[in-house]
Fold this protein.
Amino acid sequence: MGIRSRIFFIILSCLFIGISLAFVVAERDLSIGLQQQIETELSKQAKILRESFAQSDQSQDSANLKSQIDSYSKASGSRITLIGRSGKVLADSSIAMSNLTSLDDHSNRPEVIEAFANGFGSSKRFSNSMQQEMLYFALRDTTTKSNRVIRISVTNEYLDRSLASLENAMTLIVVVALIVAILASILAGNYIRESLMDLERAADMSDGSSKTKDMQHLPLKRSDEIGSMARNISTISMNLKKQISLIAKQRDQFGLVLDGLGEGIMVLNEDGLITFRNDQISQILGLEEIIDLSIHDLEIPALSRMFKKAKKKGKFDSEFELETAAEDTRWILAHMNQAKATQEFILVVHETTQLRQMDSMRRDFISNLSHELRTPVSVIKANSETLLNGALEDKKDAKIFSKAILHNADRLSEMVTSLIDLSRIEYGELKFVIESIVLNRIIETVVQAYQNKAKRKNIQIIFKHQPEVIINSDAKAIERVLNNLIDNAFKYSPENSLIEINLSKQGESVRLAVMDQGEGIAEEEQDLVFKRFFRTATARANTQQGSGLGLAIVKNLVSNLHGDFGVESRPEGGSEFWFTIPIA
Ligand code: ADP
């Protein structure tokens, strides 16, 4: 129901109650007043009649009595009855004398009883003889010898007419009041409605966007209740606006923090419906749009199971393997907790694939290291025992075994040095000295150092001279990379072969390649040779000894110098190991 209708009904109800009360009171007062007035009138008439009876001697003559009351009745318009002490009707202006005997005893009429007792009496009741509502007034007439009552009665018509005109007046008042109520309600309703609509417009902050424009419409200057409400709304609105922008800011910051976390976060309601997620969880689980989906819709059985368990226990942790849509396998560590305050479930996931890989690498590393170290140690041990067991006596044997001990001790020392170097590079302990270097000069010096070895193995090592190439980098690191690659080229190349060193510019970098005509590397092993301790099957089968650490050092040094590296099989056989270094 609108405000206008309400006001209309309130005004109407008030008017109705007021008018009804006024009507009841007025009707009662009018009726009592009129009745009293009629009674006074009737009393006067009765007294006049009694007086007239007293002056007339014919009052005992019933015929005269009848004509006297008839003429009086005609003049006054009222009914006149004379009732004897016994209750017998002696004469009546409305009834013929001959019919009087049919009338019943009137001694029981209240006005008659009262009149005989107190001298006068009145009553208002239905008359059986007249068949209508009548007003009676009775006066005891003691002027004659006989004790009788003069009763004058009139119909209720006058009273009814007066009341009917009161009713008409009241009906008119009601109609007028109705019109006034309608007009008043329309005016008041419009007035209040417009004021409230201004307030409503300004107070409509459901979307948090109460506009300053709306605020200007507020009746802030009014001194009534609407004005005070408007001022309150304006204050609330300003505060709310500030709070909303603060909350929005905090929400954005919180969102950024959650997105910036390494962990994936998801919030579920009690039914398992996803109500929040950060970017990370989508990436970790490899899922796009998950808001409003059920946890079971994600089709990750481990998560569905977790949710069921967490619902029972309040929290649950699990680590599981996940096959993503991109068909890679990830290890996920997940914790699910139920928040006490909201009963929501908060799922936090970490991807542990890398940790697991590192763990497995660590285990591989230790096992490889023990294996690699054990070989030279066993050789040293065996040769030393042979020497002690008598080989020392034979000079020739002693030399052979001692040489083997020395060779393996060198190998062991080389391996330990490489390991220490590798760990220093990996942990960032090796400091690079970046300076302007002429690359050709470094290559030439390294190549020069290998000339004797080349002659011994009958291998030709060539570096085609380039126009001067100057780069900003660490000379020692580049020398080390080059040494490792050329060392390998010698190690895995047959006699009478060629090792070629090539330097070229590639955009913003220089590319250095060491090519040999050796055994080459199978395609599936090409990615693995840069891993620590990896040695190809052919290398392991060969007598050529190695630690499997040289290329791992190459990989780490080049990466630290912001370059790239790789190996390719050459069409003419052999391999090409290359690396790039940015010029600047
Ligand atoms: P290693 O001490 O065994 O040479 P590296 O890390 O230097 O260790 O090399 C790893 C493995 O890569 C070698 O064991 C070998 O199997 C392979 N390799 C490296 N360089 C060459 C090459 N020029 N030709 C063929 N295989 C090579």
Observations:
- Residues 323 and 329 are 5 Å apart (CA to CA).
- The radius of gyration is 63 Å.
- The longest strand covers residues 132-141.
- The mean pLDDT is 87.
